[in-house]
Amino acid sequence: MINLRNVEKVYPLKGGVFYALRNINLAIREGEFVSIMGPSGSGKSTLLHILGLHDSAWGGEYQLLDQAVDKLDKKKRFELQKKHIGFVFQSYHLLDDLTVYENLEIPLSYRDMPKKERESVVCDVLDRFGIVGKKDLYPNQLSGGQQQLVGVARALIASPSLLLADEPTGNLHSDQGREIMRLFKKLNEEGTTIIQVTHSEENASYGSRTVRLADGVIISQ
User: Fold this and answer.
1) Minimal CA–CA distance to 221: which of 70, 35, 1, 55?
2) How many domains does the chain have?
3) Which CATH number fits the domain that encloses residue 7?
4) pTM over 0.70
5) Tens place of pLDDT for every residue, the chain, 221 residues?
6) How far apart are CA 188 and CA 94, in angstroms?
7) Owning domain of residue 14
């Protein structure tokens, strides 16, 4: 599903260049559940944002679902992202001027789904995540944990073939966090490929493989 070859992310500095990522070679098969771990500043989130097609300023080769991402223009990358990738952000990234319901509906609008069907899917997800009572609230009316739950629900609502998660349980109570990880495990068993960045060995244990980074380099996988 994913193949990275010699991927690098470089920041020019006055004294030279800083490598956020260097010589990243990584293959991830369809149906894997991979955890990316490493100390702060090791390049974990940078790598995840490249995989999620949020960052285009990098070098090297990236193949996703048999498409050469490094050769696609901005529009084609956006289409690939919206069709196949769900992303759970560490800092929520909910749209402040939209209600919970409207935030959840957005990914479905990219799939040309009829309005009645969208309503049904959103209602199912609101129920699944226990946030029916929050559907008409705006993000600034929610706690951090509630916003994170909505963020996870939004990432999953369109049944992406690839789910990327940046510290998905960071703002949740431990019970809520385990519930999310069990949900990820179930989705993975049903065929969703998952890549998560985590500091938690417990969260990593839900996956099938751990990739460890240090100073922008893969040290084990």
Assistant:
1) 35
2) 1
3) 3.40.50.300
4) yes
5) 999 999 999 999 888 899 999 999 999 999 999 999 999 999 999 999 999 999 999 999 999 999 999 999 999 999 999 999 999 988 888 999 999 999 999 999 888 788 999 999 999 999 989 999 999 999 999 988 899 889 999 999 999 999 999 999 887 888 888 988 998 999 999 999 999 999 999 999 999 999 999 999 999 99
6) 24
7) 2-220
